[in-house]
Design a protein that fits this description.
It is a single chain. Strands 3-2-1-4-5-6-9 form a 7-stranded parallel beta sheet, with helices on both faces. Strands 7-8 form a two-stranded parallel ribbon. The chain is built from 8 helices and 9 strands. The protein has a single domain, classed as NAD(P)-binding Rossmann-like Domain (Rossmann fold). The chain is globular and about 60 Å long. Strand 1, helix 1 (24-34) and strand 2 (38-43) form a beta-alpha-beta unit. By secondary structure, it is an alpha/beta fold.
Length: 273
């Protein structure tokens, strides 16, 4: 088993119920447990996170839920301390927590955005929306690494996977603040990878394309939107969350022991065009 004796924390991991569309974090939790890991699911959705962890335990897996707002430094420190006290070590960190759209208004103002796509352009981006995206994706990932790395050092190494996006690599005509935050996450991963490579602490980023997750529900349940998006993908479909999880599993395992500072694009060929 590729993750035997490893302890992992995965943020944004509450959406992992059996029989439902899973988020990337929830799917990753199941993948890790199947390979023998002890997994801590971290999220702010306590009810869903507890249910997911309970379902994993019912199958014989070792899973626990912890409440964690990834923008809160004190909570990060307490959470890592709690895990290490309970398990004796921390081997893997997956920074997967995300946040939704930035525009909270409607589309009735003639001087404002006229639809959801237009609302994400820079002229309608708010400072609050930008701060929210940077807070979860960049600040959250940084804090996770800040407190996980000293514990990984005690183990003689570890693996950190930061879940970015293809929109952190290539520009798009919308989602200004989201793509900016995901790009920051990508470059921070490379920087931290260089800083700790000599200590066998590996840091990599994954960059999913369009993926079937609860957060992306409108993008694959609306036939017109789905047809538009899949027409841009050479493989002609969205990824399943389990396909992203399997790539994260590889980077978390010792099979990727010589990989650090890399970015793994998982997008059905979208970014190759």
């Amino acid at each position: 088993m590729r993750m035997r004796s490893k302890t992992a924390i995965i943020t944004g991991a509450a959406t992992g119920l059996k029989g439902e569309i899973r988020g990337i974090g929830g799917a990753t939790a199941w993948a890790f447990v199947r390979e023998g890991a002890t997994v801590y699911l971290a999220d702010i959705n306590d009810e869903l996170g507890e249910r997911t962890a309970a379902q994993i335990r019912e199958t014989g897996g070792s899973a626990h839920y912890v409440h964690l707002d990834v923008t809160d430094e004190a909570l990060w420190q307490n959470t890592i301390d709690f895990i290490v006290k309970a398990e004796g070590a921390l081997d893997v960190l997956v920074n997967n927590a995300g946040t939704g759209r930035d525009y909270d208004g409607d589309y009735s103002d003639p001087d404002g955005p006229q639809n959801a796509e237009e609302a994400l352009k820079v002229e309608f981006t708010t400072v609050e929306g930008l701060d929210r995206q940077l807070g979860v994706h960049v600040r959250g990932a940084m804090l996770g690494m800040k407190y996980a790395i000293p514990e990984m050092r005690k183990r003689g190494g570890g693996s950190i996977i930061n879940v970015s996006s293809i929109h952190g690599i290539v520009g798009v005509d919308t989602i200004t603040s989201y793509s900016t935050a995901k790009a920051g996450m990508r470059h921070m991963s490379k920087t931290v990878a260089i800083q700790y490579a000599s200590e066998n602490i590996r840091v990599n980023s994954v960059h999913p394309g369009y993926t079937k997750t609860p957060a992306a529900l409108p993008l694959f349940t609306d036939p017109e939107l789905y047809a538009d998006r899949t027409s841009q993908i050479p493989m002609g479909r969205y990824a399943e969350s389990e396909e992203i999880a399997n790539s994260i599993l590889f980077l978390a395992s010792d099979e990727s022991s010589y990989i650090t500072g890399a970015e793994l694009v998982i997008d059905g060929g979208h970014n190759a065009q």
